[in-house]
Amino acid sequence: QVQLVESGGGLVQTGDSLRLSCAASGRTFSSYAMGWFRQVPGKEREFVAAISWSGGRTYYADSVTGRVTISRDNAKNTVFLQMNSLKPEDTAAYYCAAKLMGGNYVSRDSRVYDYWGQGTQVTVSS
């Protein structure tokens, strides 16, 4: 069992930056591939970024490539999402997710993830 708690969301202006954090507790964090997703009310959950258990492989949605960086600190059981040059269309609730899988596994499919956090809201004003 893994518990995930996101933080770092807030209200920012277009062009600003935010760093989201996802703190994990429970089973060995380094055994998990991690992902970030976002969701706007009335729409499906959307993939943002994913990272393998070692951090050696990352994967980004086209909509955020070049503006977003996913990273992890296994010693601190935390995964991060650095978001730069934020746009109003980035406004959403952001969720982190964990998948028990080693190697270079990453996935953009929300259905494969085993655990989810409660989300943190990011609002970008124009």
Question: Describe it for me?
Answer:
The strands form 2 sheets. Strands 2, 4, 5, 6, 9, 10 and 11 form a 7-stranded mixed beta sheet that branches. Strands 1-3-8-7 form a 4-stranded antiparallel beta sheet, with no helix packed on it. The protein starts with a strand and ends with a strand. The mean pLDDT is 95. It is built from no helices and 11 strands. With 126 residues, it is an all-beta fold.
List the helices and strands and how they pair.
Layout: E1 2-7, E2 10-13, E3 18-26, E4 32-39, E5 46-51, E6 58-60, E7 68-73, E8 78-83, E9 92-100, E10 115-116, E11 120-125
* Average predicted confidence as pLDDT: 95
- Terminal CA distance: 40 Å
The radius of gyration computed from the alpha-carbon positions, rounded to a whole number of angstroms, is 13 Å
**How many H/I helical runs?**
0
Main sheet summary: 7 strands, mixed
Low-confidence stretches: none
Keywords:
52% strand, 126 residues, mainly beta, 4-stranded antiparallel β-sheet
Structure described in brief:
With 126 residues, the protein is mostly beta strands. The chain has strands at 2-7, 10-13, 18-26, 32-39, 46-51, 58-60, 68-73, 78-83, 92-100, 115-116, 120-125.
